[in-house]
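Figure 2 data, in text form.
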Amino acid sequence: MQPPAEHVHWLFATGVLLLGLLLLSEAIVGREVWRRRAWRAYLWPSLLFALGVFMWPVMVFFTNSTIHMLAHSVWAQTAMVAGAAELGLVSGKLRSEWWKLAVPVAFAVSGAAFLIHEANPWFYARSAFVHHACGWTLLIGALFPLGAAFKPRSWVFNTGYALVVVGVAVALYSSRDVAPVFRHLDPSAGVAHR
């Protein structure tokens, strides 16, 4: 028996929220203080990589179209590459700071995937609105990790980066298959759940 899509969204929202809170904690206390305990430096890159790994079963078992399958595989790949790049930088295996660009690229590609795979307009149903909101948040929000890549001590870029991730988690928590958005539901969307 397959769980409703909203349950899968909520599970990933929990992981994304934890990721955002880890990033926010690091931004608040500063990178030097955060990394006084060596294991903390590995927390959020490991979680990002794990979210990418867990996206693969979603791609295989919870997709209903080719475009959804491609979008989920793109999310899996970009999350894993960004997480692996950050893990490589933290461990010292990767020396080039250009690897810091993996996260903004992952944000931009994920945002584009959110927008491309949602064929319905914003106010079609809540699920369409959530996909559009997440897509634009990630596309515009990619500027924060991009800025943080060039100015790693910037409180504004690091906090903005964390808040973009938290914002995506909040949007994912509001996901429902067929539910009204701002009291509007397109008649062709179907009967609202709850």
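Caption note: The chain has one domain: 5-189.
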